[in-house]
Specification:
By secondary structure, this protein is of the alpha+beta class. It is built from two helices and 14 strands, in the order E-E-H-E-E-E-E-E-H-E-E-E-E-E-E-E.
């Protein structure tokens, strides 16, 4: 049995029915594989994205030019920011609980998702940072950006994280630290437990242990 098409009164054989069924089966298999791949990728993105577990005060999510009221249980997707307006506290946590973030008064935090661990966080590029970074280029880590305000971040051992401020970046693995960014961009990282590596825009590198801090102003790097 053949499948024919009628064009200008003439019959043109094309494919046998069995061949057509094979093609439909193959297309269905490809579609299913794409669907499964997309679903798994979305699930992984959600697993890596922080979840709002507490909101005390007025907090909003900034997404694609819109402001949405922040609520407990919401996921902060890559590219979205959360802003705590006035006093209060917002707590974020990854689904596995390995990264926990406390957001304090008048703070804005953006979640960048997974980024290359040795990529340049600032623009224009700072060549010194690229030269001093020893992390393999294929390695990725979650990244938060703090233009202004204060965070307290807890990272469990084995989990990596980058926190980028206007003048300094903290790269951590298994530690507890705070980040404080003032209105003029002055950035301060204080280590409460473990060790934190901080990088300045001009390539400065400092390793701070418990009870130590690093601060960068527009004029100087103070450790």
């Amino acid at each position: 049995m053949a499948l024919v098409f009628l064009v200008d009164g003439r019959m043109f054989p094309r494919f046998k029915v069995l061949d057509m069924l094979k093609i439909f089966w193959l297309l269905g298999l490809i579609f299913f594989a794409c669907f499964v791949g997309t679903t798994l990728a979305q699930a992984q993105n959600q697993a890596d994205s922080p979840i709002i577990i507490k909101v005390a005060g007025k907090a909003e999510i900034l997404a694609q030019g819109r402001r949405l009221k922040a609520r407990e249980g919401q996921i902060l997707a890559p590219g979205q920011s959360i802003q705590l307006i006035g006093g209060g506290e917002v707590r974020l946590s990854t689904s596995n609980g390995k990264i926990k973030v406390k957001v304090f008064d008048d703070t804005i935090v953006k979640f960048d998702g997974q980024v290359e661990a040795n990529s340049q966080p600032w623009s224009p590029p700072t060549s010194q940072y690229e030269k001093t970074s020893t992390t393999p280029s294929s390695h990725k880590a979650p990244q938060f950006v703090v233009p202004v305000g204060k965070l307290e971040v807890q990272v469990e051992p084995g989990q990596e994280l980058r926190v980028v401020c206007p003048l300094i970046m903290a790269a951590v693995r298994g530690t507890l630290f705070t980040v404080n960014v003032s209105g003029d961009g002055t950035s301060r990282v204080e280590t409460l437990d473990g060790r934190v590596a901080t990088y300045g825009r001009n390539g400065e590198i400092h390793l701070t242990s418990s009870g130590q801090s690093s601060q960068v102003t527009a004029r100087a790097y103070v450790s």
